[in-house]
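Bug #77: duplicate submission created two jobs. Keeping one. Sequence:
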Amino acid sequence: MKKIIIILITLLTFSACKNDAKANEVNLEENRAKSYDANDGYITMRGEFIYYGDAAVFKVGNEMYGVVIDDNMHTLNEQVKPFKKEDTDMVPVTVRVKRFKKPEGEEGWPNRVIIKDILKVEEPTTETKDVIKLAN
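Kept job's structure:
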C-alpha cells in the first residue's frame, strides 16, 4: 500500500512539473489586434517620414509633426533606408502613433508624435517633384 501511495505522489509531482511549451509561446498577431482594440490613445496615421541628422519629421497632408527619437523611430528609419535615393527623401509610411503638443519653451514643430507600431513602409512615388536642389 505504501508503494502505491509513493508511486501516485511521484506521478502527480512529475505531471504537475510538466512545462507546456505551447503555453509559453506568444502570438504576436493576437497581441497586436488586442492593442488596436484597446483605447490606449494611439491612432493609425499615414504620411511621409524623414530622419536627417538629429531631427525626425512626419508629414500628414499639410501638417508636420516632430517625431520623438527612440528605438521605434530608429527601427522605422532602418526600414525606410532602402527606399531613399537621397538622404532628404521622404518615404510614405503607415504607423500607430500618439499625438501630443510640444512642451512649452522647446524648439520644433508645435505637434509631436511618438511611434508605437510600424504597420507599413511603401516605396515613394516618382510623380511628386517637390525637392529643390541647389548647385554650387
